# Entry
Amino acid sequence: MELDQDQLRERTRPGRPPAERTIVAEDASGIVDISELSGRELGSTMTLSMGPQHPSTHGVLRLELELDGEVVLSTKPDIGYLHTGMEKLMESKKYLSNICITDRMDYLNPMGNNLGYVLAVEKLLQLEIPPRAQCIRVLMCELQRIASHLVWIGTHALDVGAMSVFFYAFDEREKILNMFEDVCGGRMTPSYFRVGGMFQDLPAGFDAKVRRFLSEFPAALDAFDTLLTGNRIFRNRLQGVGVISAEDAISWGITGPSLRGSGVAHDLRRAEPYCGYELYDFDIPTFPEGDVWARYQVRRQEFRESLKIVLQCVDKMPSGPIKADNDKVVLPDRDDMKTHMDALIHHFLIAADGFKVPEGEVYLAIEGSKGELGYYIVSDGSERPFRCHVRGPSFVNLSAMPDMVKGSLIADVVAVIGSIDIVLGEIDR
Amino acid sequence: MTLEMFLITAVKIGLVLFIILTAVAYCTYMERRVLAFIQVRLGPNRVGPFGLLQPLADGIKFIFKEDVIPTDVTRFIYILAPITALVPALMTFAVIPFGDRLEIFGKDISLYITGFNVSLLFVFAMTSLGVYGIVLAGWSSNSKYSLFGGLRSSAQMISYELALSLSIIGVLIQVGSLDLVKIVEAQSGWHGFQWNVIAFQPIGFLIFFIAVLAETNRVPFDLPEAETELVGGFHTEYSSMKFAMFFMAEYSAMITASCMATVLFFGGWNGPGTQLETIGPFIGLAWFTLKVFLFLFTYIWIRGTLPRFRYDQLMDFGWKLLLPLAIFNIVFTATWKFLFHYYDLAPSLPAWMQGK
# Structure
């Protein structure tokens, strides 16, 4: 009896080599040349659980790595540690209240999330959005794209070991968040967009602030280039790592900068323009290599393209209303409510009961900072969505990660995670 | 050995230990402040004026933290490892010449604990022993991250040790001695043109400096504890004073490396003013401290600037670039030295090069 106990302890002790080994390479004399056996055949592979608490899994991602020494044989991403049931929650909230839920999905790109949602609802409602609101939306989304890419470049560099860039990037991001705060009071979760327009107009002096940012920011980009792009160590860490071909990228459904890093010039701002993106002049940077370095280059250049769009926005910002002319859906101005009886009544009705959306279903995708951000909304004619599904780019891009890291080293896994720029809030929803 | 000599040495050992351990503590302070300065932050500035008491607070915290020993560690080795890391790191300071001889109360006292004819070898022997602490820690912790840290560090340190040892052979050829004091004396002269880094080991210094970064696990060679890959590397499972001992070992290794760079390539205590009567040795000590400080600053500066190498690239860099370069340097120095003596070129050199 005691012996069994001992055996049991011996078996359950961690770090014990696997008992069963399948030997495949055996010559006529029955002698096995160990050097010809792979780690799997020798049974000497190691399973490493990376995360959910790990410095470079960008949140609470867990990776199950099968390792042969430092070489990654297979990867299994394990998600769900941040699941909050947002899609389900949206079914029980009114269309207007749902905007603030979208903020919290991809918390690095809240303006983009707002936009995708309100555009989808507006399509169901067939609302006409005034040009000034359209222009503010583009302005906000492009500033948000810069802010999101700043977090990406900071964390990506931090993962690869360059610490300081992280702080410089967050310093610049702070300027953008300050602008958001000026506009709507929120920084991380602005909820600035409304169905039918914007929450409020741009504050006085906003134009000057954006212009100052536009004039200062290129210097920061040059600093990043000096610290990272021109650095041999950084380049060697990125080049030829995590390669994915254009065909594979398309069949995995990768979108956004990660797709353009494989040489596919697909950008929803150009392919299916929304919010009047067809009016702006900008390039779509693509790099054909498909490795981490190409994805880095794409995002690096998107900074400058976004700056171009922002400049065009402030240059030709149209005047006029910022809300659609539909008092059944759009909340009236505060000033009107104090002087007009009907405005007060409409405000009460929209705030208390919500607005009804015609029956139907819609899928609308925008180019978020990480890729195609799609909203699929089914309406049953009530004031709450019957079903709301989000096609998050992080989720789809992450699913291709095991393919990218197969056969590379542990250090490459970290670099690849950084290069696909995931946000766990959006993956788990 | 007379009682007097014994007492003097004992006092010197105590003093050096005290100064080095304080320096280690303030190294962490300096690292945090300088990094913060580089990264547009403030760094520790709450405890005491300018946060100067922060190392003290950290020390107290380390002592009072719970000392967690995970189950399933190999207990004896797990406890032995931090000691193995720290003791050799501190022992190197026994032979490092901080300054010249000094006359106090009519006694001739050297500003180093001891000097013997192979003190350079002693330093390298001790720094090489330091790797055992890391390897044993990685192995005994029974954690996969620690194991990877230990594996990486053993491979890295052994690879770079080669380049490191070969890089100083140029100096040895020029000086002709393994005694650190003699090496410093060979570089004497207030002007600095006699320093080995200028005459004529710039390549040797470059290799030495890079290899030393790898030996001390500093960025860009901090793979054994790459926190974005291996969480904490070899010290993932250590806590309390055991963790602090690794920390101290790392920083004293940094100081040793800076001292060695100063001694071998930057003229040790030599500098303007060291020839003066009475205060000369003190000025020499100040020069030595300043040079070491500059090297420490450079370490931190590099940490704030460079990304990390990948494992295979690190090996490539060590074996395929540094090692051949070091061998080339040896051949070059030996050839030059031979020609110099064979054709007796010394008198044709300008006066400052002859050390006059």
